[in-house]
Amino acid sequence: MKALSIRQPWAELIVASLKDIENRTWRTDYRGPVLIHAGVNIEPIDADLREWVKRVSGFDLPQAADLPRGGIVGQVEIVDLVQSSSSPWFSGPYGFVLANARRLPFRPMSGQPGLFEVQEDVCT
């Protein structure tokens, strides 16, 4: 199965079914299920980011220390690739359009750049 490493808090927002686009600088022709890997590094969560996420989604971001990192946290489907979108989450240049997100029990695992392969039993 394919996986995609994403920094927190973006991985949390995806598995909470709030973030419907994942921005990338590269394209993919892949469509289908993808495991969400929360990377070890975290995007700084400052007051401006907290306020923006709350305004856009109504979601209160957890504290950085409470976000799981360095493993699989969920699964989503990539259903399209766009270069423009009205989604507030889109910043481009490419956006993987996401659907059917679900949280999975945390499974520690190293990430890799791009879409990478993992054993099928990781998502069971």
How would you explain this protein's 3D organization?
With 124 residues, this protein is mainly beta. The mean pLDDT is 94. 26% of the residues are buried. The chain has helices at 10-15, 47-57, and strands at residues 2-8, 21-24, 32-42, 71-82, 94-108, 115-117. The longest helix is centred in the middle third of the chain and has 11 residues, at 47-57. The protein has a single domain, classed as Hypothetical protein (Archaeosine Trna-guanine Transglycosylase, Chain: A, domain 4, Roll), CATH 2.30.130. A six-stranded mixed beta sheet has the order 2-5-4-3-1-6.
Topology summary:
Layout: E1 2-8, H1 10-15, E2 21-24, E3 32-42, H2 47-57, E4 71-82, E5 94-108, E6 115-117
Parallel strand pairs: 1-3
Antiparallel strand pairs: 1-6, 2-5, 3-4, 4-5
Could you list the spans in which at least 5 consecutive residues all have pLDDT below 50? none
Q: Biggest sheet: strands side by side, in what order?
A: 2-5-4-3-1-6
Distance between the termini: 12 Å
The helix content is 10-25%
Give me the CATH fold name.
Archaeosine Trna-guanine Transglycosylase, Chain: A, domain 4
* Morphology: globular
Tally of alpha and pi helices: 2
Radius of gyration: 14 Å
Task: Tell me, rounded to a whole number, the average pLDDT.
Answer: 94
Relevant CATH superfamily: Hypothetical protein
Q: Which structural class matches the secondary elements?
A: mainly beta
